[in-house]
Amino acid sequence: MIKIxxxxxxxxxxxxxxFGFRHLGVPVSGCMDLxxxxxxxxxxxxxxxxxxxxxxxxxPRIQFLASTxxxxxxxxxxxxxxxxxxxxxxxxxxxxxxxxxxxxxxxxCRNYLSILDGFNHEKTLNSQSQYKGITxxxxxxxxxxxxxxxxxxxxxxRASVQLNKQLFNSYLIPALKGxxxxxLNKQTKTKLFSQSFSLSSQSNRMAFLFNQDLxxxxxxxxxxxxxxxxxxxxxxxxxxxLMRDAQTTGGYARILQLTNLAISQLSQLPVNxxxxxxxxxxx
Length: 283
Prior knowledge:
Largest sheet: 9 strands, antiparallel
Number of strands: 18
Helix content: 10-25%
Shape: elongated
């Protein structure tokens, strides 16, 4: 078990996502950066669906109530074990009573803390991913005690990997053309791929908003299916990228669609970071 001494910023339990309920209007949720999430579980040889703690900009301070192994992946950050600096992207041996602190990010903005065999957190609709209105809490709370799955597994060869900086400082976000891309005029199509956008401070796990608009929007469409990574354009020229907690339907034109890797890249860009969309073709 672990105890949350401080929750950090927007820290929550997340896993691969909540699937099979979109027809009921339930978002997929899950980790924003699936690449870092998968790495966190792989380093511990966990099941690829084990839950982790996702944090943004500054992570939680955690006390361990039993010995175990953990790893922290994602953004480059200061990581302290009992006030001593330790490395991310490596397996850490934890003793009962140890305190781990995930500090401020320096490159990227989201971190993922995985524990041996995962957290034994309550499941709702086949997922541990926290989401307001579906789970009891939408974020970690100070002094909460979270159960972990019991494990007698020993990790003898503690692996580590180097930080893949391309995931955290790539300012070209690959994107496929969406169903309503053809509705854009030539000027807007050109601007979409040549203009630099920057993330608005109003962005969240549901949708990323930008500080720049496109010169011309499109009329609203008949409400249609959307998913994480769908890029919408409003009639006023606002560009919206739907993220992991996105709704399941929408009435704005779907002009682009991001891949899972592109969502991971975009989710690691801090507020006001600049990027451009790069057109790609379906494989």
